Every structure is written in C-alpha cells, then in structure tokens.
Amino acid sequence: MPELFNYFDHVELPTPTLGVDEVERLCTLAFGIDVVAIPLGSQQDQNFRLFPRDSDVPFGVLKLSNPVFSETEIRMQDEATNAVAMVEPSLRVPRVLSGPRGALWAWWDSSQGRIHARVLENISGHTLTGSRYLPPTVIERLGDLAGRVSAALGSFEHPASSRTLQWDLRHARRVIDALLPDEPDAEVRAAIDQAVSEASAALDRVESRLPLQVGHFDITDDNVLRGEGELLPDAVIDFGDVMRSWRVAEIAVTASCVLHHDGAEPMSVIPAIRAFHARCPLTDDEITALWPLIIVRGATLVLSGRAQVRLDDANDYAADALDRERRIFDVATSVPASVMTAAIRRALDPDSSAPTRAWEGAPVVTLPAEAVVLDAGTVSPVNDRGVWLDPEALDRAALSTLDAGAGAVVVPAWHSMLSGAPLRTPTAPATIPTGTTLWLAEPLALGRDDGEWTGGAGTLTWRCGDEVVTITGVPDGSDAALPARTRLFVQRHAAGDELPPPRVSAALAEAWRDVTGDISNALGMAPALPRGDDILARRHGVLAEVQEHYYDTPPRIERGWREYLIDVDGRVYLDMVNNVASVGHAHPRVADAATRQLNLLNTNSRFHYGVITEYAERIAQTLPAELDTVFFVNSGSEAADLALRLAMASTGRTDIVAMREAYHGWTFASDAVSTSIADNPNALATRPEWVHTVAAANPYRGTYRGDEAERYGPEAVAVIDHLAASGRAPAGLICETFFGNAGGVALPPGYLAQVYEAIRRHGGLAIADEVQVGFGRLGEWFWGFEQQRVVPDIVAVAKSIGAGHPIGAVITRREIADRYRTQGYFFSSTGGSPVSAAIGLAVLDVIEQEGLQQNARVVGAHLKRRLERLAESHPIVGAVHGAGLYLGVEFVRDRITLEPATDETAAICDRLLTLGVIMQPTGDYLNVLKIKPPLCVSLESVDYFVDSLDRVLTTGW
Predict the structure, then answer these.
(1) Is residue 159 predicted with pLDDT exceeding 90?
(2) β-pairing, 224-226 with 102-103?
(3) Would you give the distance in Å from CA 326 to the centre of its chain?
(4) Choosing a second label site near 870 at 20 to 30 A (CA), which of 13, 146, 571, 816?
C-alpha cells in the first residue's frame, strides 16, 4: 500500500491552483466532456462546478485532490460515500459520475504536476454556509445527519483510514503544538494555550476509553445541503476527511460549526447532541470528552485558518472563514468545559446526571436562628410596582426586615432574581445567583478553623482541601467577623476552579450548581430544591386543547410592568403585541383602583352604586353627543353579540351584513359574523343564512388594490341594496372601523360613509367594532370611526378599556337601547361591576393624564417610519399598515403576486422571542406582524423592536 498522508509531514499544504481554461481542456481530453468550469471554494483541494457548454443546468462537481493524497485515500472517500448511500438511501450524497468513457475518475498530467480529478454528482440545494441564524430544528437535523452517517459507517473498514489528518481530533493537540509557535498574535496564542491546556486535562482522563471508528468528521454547515424552499438539510457532501478517529469527534465537529452562527450560545448545540445521541448513544466517557473536543476543534480551526491565509493569501475561502472560526473558539470557551459537560449530561439523561458536589463537615458560618429568607424572584412582592428596576431596592427591603427583628436576611443561591435584571436583552440574561446574598443584624464570627482564612480587596476566602468559600462585600479590616447591615455575597467552588460569575443564565444554572456545589450547607441552611417546572404539562392536562397558548414552548410569564413581560427566570421581554394591557402592565393607578374598590364593594350590577354611573358618563363623554346610552358586558365577544342583538331588536329584522376576513368574537352571534379563515378555515362556508358578507376592503391585498380600492364602497352598497330589494333588508352592518384582523389596514377613504348611508337608507343600523383600535390607540383619533369621519349608531368596545380586566361596553342612542325591551330584559352579572367600573375609570384617567394617546401618535409615527425603511433592504416586507400604535408588517414572498410568507412569519416571531421580543402573526394568511404594544411604550423600546426585526430579517430565522 502506498504511503498514507501524514499531516505532520505536510504542515504547509498549498492548494492546487489550476486555471479555468486548463481545467476545461483537461475535462475534454481525459473525460470526453465539453464543460464550463466555475471555481468553488476549498481549503486544501480545488473544486469546480461543471456545466455542459451552453447550459445552465449543473453537470457535476469536479474535485482536484491535493497531490499529497494517495489514490488509496481517494478511493476510500468514494467507498465511504457509497457505504452511506447503501445504508441511508434517503440521504443525498455525492457519488462519482460516469461519462462517455466510463467513470469520471482519473489522474491528470497538469501544468502543476500529476493531480487526481474526479467528477461527483452535483447535489442540488443550498448549504448553511455563512453565519446566519440556525433555528433549533435545523441544529437538531445537523446532529441527526451526523448520527446517521456515523451509524452507517460504524462497520466500515479501509486500509487508508489510518491516515493522519490535521482535522483528526486525536491529533489536535499535536497540530496545535505545531502551529502555535508560528502564530504572530500574542493574544491568540495565550487564549488558545490556556484553553487547550484545560481541555487536555479533561481528555487525558478518558481518551484511552473512547470508541474508535471510521467517520466523515466534517459534517458541518458548509457540507450539508437543503433543497430549494426547504428548511431542513437532507444531503451530506465532501467526504474528503474520512478517516478512523474517536466516534465522539463526529458530533464534536458538527456541534462546533453551530457556534459561529448569529445568536449562538454554548447551549444552542444541545439539540444536535441529543439527535446524535438518539442515533449513536454516547458513553459516559464520550460525554466527558465532548466539550473539550469542541474547544480543541475551535483552537485547531483558528490556528489552521490563520496559518493557511499566511501561506496562501489568495485563498479567499480560508480568509473568509477566519472570523467564523474565531467565534467558534470564543463561544466554546465562554463557559467552562466542566459546566458544559454537566449541562450535556443533564440534557441527555437527567436521571443519571452527576450529583451536585456535597458539602462535608460543619458550616463555615452559622447564621442566627432568626434568619429570614427573602424572595427576590419574579413573583416576589419585593419587586412590585417596578421596584426591581431600582438597584438599591433589595438592600432597603433587607434592612427593613432586619429592623423588624430578623437576625439575618438571606437571598438564597440558585433561585432566580428579578432585582437588577436588565431590560431589552437579545440573549437570556444572567439572573440565577451562584451564591447566597446575606445581611446580618449583628457582626458574626467566622466559623470553622480547620481551613485557612485569607482576606483582602473586600473579600474573605476560606480554603480547606478541595473546598473554597468566598465572601465578597467585606469592608477592609473585617477579617475576624462578618459585618452587620452590609450586603455580603457567599459563593463556593472547587479548589483549582475559577470563582464562578455572580449570576448565570437559567439554561446553565443546574449545570453550574452541579460543578460548584450548593453554598447552603456551608451556611447551615437547607439546600435549594432542584429547579423544575411542570406547569405547562399540567396546563395541557387540564385545559381544553383549543384554548391555545402562544408559542410551542412558551416562556412562563408571571409579571408585567409597563411594556414588559417577565418570566419566572427573571428574563424581561418587550411586549409588542398586547393591546389588552393598554396603559401598561401592572399600572399602579389601575391596581390601586381595583384594590380600593375590592375593599369597599364588588357585587353584581343590579345594585345601585355610584361608580357604574361615573364610568358610563366618562365613556359617553368621549363619543359624539347622540351616543349617550351605555351597556356594560365582560368582553369584546359579548359586546359584538349585544350590538347585533340591539340592531335586530331595534329594527325587528335578523339579517346582518358583515365584512369578510374579520373577527368579532366567539359567542354564537359574534362568531356568526366572523369570517376570518385564520380563526375558522370553514368560516365562509358555515355562515348562517342571516349573515351576508361583503368583500374585505383591503387596498393592499384585496380584490381592488391601490386606487382601485374606491370600488369597495359601491360594491358593498350594491350588496345592501340587493338584499333590501329581495325583501331581506338588513338589521345592520357590523364592521371594524380599522381593519384590525388584517394587521391594521386602513379602510379606503369614504368607505364607511358610503356603507353607513346605504344601511341607514334601508332602515338598518351601523355597528362600529372598536374592540381593537378604540381608546386612543390610533394616535390621531380616539375612536377609529373618527378617521372615516362618520358616526355609527352602535359602538362595541372592550379589550383595552379594562387594561387586562374583563370589561366590554356597547354605546348607542337612547331610542335604540330602549328597543331592546322587545327581546326581554338585559342583565350581565359582572358587566359594569363596581370593580370593573373603578378599573375602567382609572384607565381613562391614565390615558388622559399621562398623554397616552399623544404617545401613540408620536411613538407610533416614529415606529412606522422605521418599519417602512426596513422595506428598502428586505424584499420580504410587502407593506407596513396602520396608524399610531396599531400597525402591521405584512410579509410576502413576492411583491407582485403578494404570495403570503406564512411559514416565514411564524419563524420570524419565534426568532424574535429568542431576542426578547413578544410578537405574533395575524391576518387570514397569518403573514402579518400585529404590532399593538401598550400605549406607554417608549421610543427606546420601539427602536429595540425594529433593530431586532432588522437583525432577524438580515441574519435569518
């Protein structure tokens, strides 16, 4: 057998550089094919995509192997490809093609010497090359592909598999040792040297027990493809690194490639590792080796890439990869390998995870018996009314507790802390403390004397054997005792490890705890209970399936404040979709009004009390004078239902005209006039015979667009006239005054004036559904019908008027209200209850006194301008609809056909969630972002939203 390649004999490995003309000539001479060759990138070989002359359909990919590789090694690559194809027929892999003279596989005598050439199948599709965002499903598929290939090659043997490549992670440390001295950047040398030394120590303990096999060992984003229009890759290319190595290296290589993609963090690779483990179960030793191998893979990439560019500065492929390779290394080393190993163990088999380090012996410090545990988490009253934003609030709460008689106050380790949590973060912030925060009523003597106490720079440290306990916040000169009424922070870790950060992300908290240990026993306290949350599973078990929730895997939201929603881990999300919380989440004036009224009276609305009258008068004052009579209900659905019943009672008729693609509610009557196919795919086909629809007056997507939209009004009038002429004059017409369900699309100018006139001409009533846009959301107008310069006969409103409390209202003229008696009496037990009315009054006060309608106008105009600018650089943005703080961004695949980008919109919303933004789709095709944040939203917040959306549209979803 010829001598096999040994990287250490060829550390400098320049690629072949044949010109296109010569390549095309040799293809004709050696293979008998007339082709056009287009160069492709490669680090050590030379590749071309071949096209038959005068054709744009690819014929195949020409691979010119680096001359250092023997024919035996090249044959091994092809045989491994065939082996995978046999075991995994659904997996697309590139095999050698045949031409007029047989297999397109030969040695060429070129201007640069003897070079091996072969033409492989051109696998159609697109790679994941670049650093765009990879969603978890794609990352999972990468791991699955790696597992499938590894399993397929599990029994594959070849004499050339023992070759020594620079990418064989068994030799990574030797490669690094060879390249590191020549690296000119001292910072790069130091970072790699330290990281590789620590990784090597972990590998040394297990490497002799790691299973070996032949593998691909380069299943990365560059070497997988997905079909046109497909999300998930289904093809693996480039078997150039086939060799025998540690089996776990396959997934280490694959996982490492994830780390340079936009938004990737160490935990981003877990879906890939899980998927690989499902195909090729990892041993405990392989789990121990995995993250250290990812680190040395990153180090090898950095040094090899930089060395290749110094050697061959014309190699654009290698040069373009430098930043990506450095990011892989930086992300891989951003968390200690021991912590990531613990996280991987938990992800693969939580029941067999290594136990948290146990505490041996007596406490280092024994706290007073009167110690009080202070909850600083999301639901703690300590954080009410936005106090969590004040960095000194926790200290004040602790000192107040001491003043009340506590001997000590403790905020325990490993419980989430909202206090001090940041706003608007593109990644999950560090909110889980790795230590216990402590305040003492009196100075406290230090405990155990079997170790060594040292102090300095505000820190006391106790060392004994493998244990290290560190207490920070200690004033100088306090070496003999812990000071009173001072915030102290107590952490624990193993000797030889660095002090953990004060807080870590929720995703890594359990792994950090496994590695560092729990400090509780060192303070004589019971350890923290393991983190866990089964609320979602319990919800699924007890709620009806159709009562859905946002997101497949939703954050558990337990607090709101202004335009923010906060989960149980203390992550603060920007809420850009919640017009229910109109004046902002947890507004103090609304909360105070509810509390005060609950302390006075809350009963059904048939009792006589003052607040219902005051609230009705205040609502009526916002409307034209003739709309002077108010009904109270509990929701928008009830309001729409009652409005329809009023129209029927007032006219003695039952037929109703409704606009298509609208949603009005879920009660029998409001559902009957709801025709959105997003809410009910069979909406139009299942309308009762008394509902008659007119076209959705959408100037962007509807039947008539642009200037043609003026035709909607006359067409709707014709429908109304026809109904009347046929003896079915309608009782009324119900219509949103601003097309909310479509994403805030304004109706054509004059539309409502035309249809209102027609319905009234035939004795019917005009019903304005203001549930979505009423109460100042449009900025310029308090009510949506004002934008159309009309006055309806009946107004239905809800949602925002209660700021999250269930309040609905119907406002009409006295003579219309009085006609309801023909239907019997009206009664809603809690509609207009004392608490509901008090809350409603508070909402009106806040809107007026805090200038929220003006905020909607100013901030909304700024937001819309910024969103419109996105369309200049992102073709998927078809239009920006709306006014004030009721906006919609409509995504399309084609601006001419307006094909809705439904799947893309859902994925964009999911990606925004990872960036800390709550957003959901709307519209019949669910391709419009429904942008309707609390009216108090700030300029800074809407800028963050647009910046995040721009990032998603730029880097992917």
Answers:
(1) yes
(2) unpaired
(3) 24
(4) 571
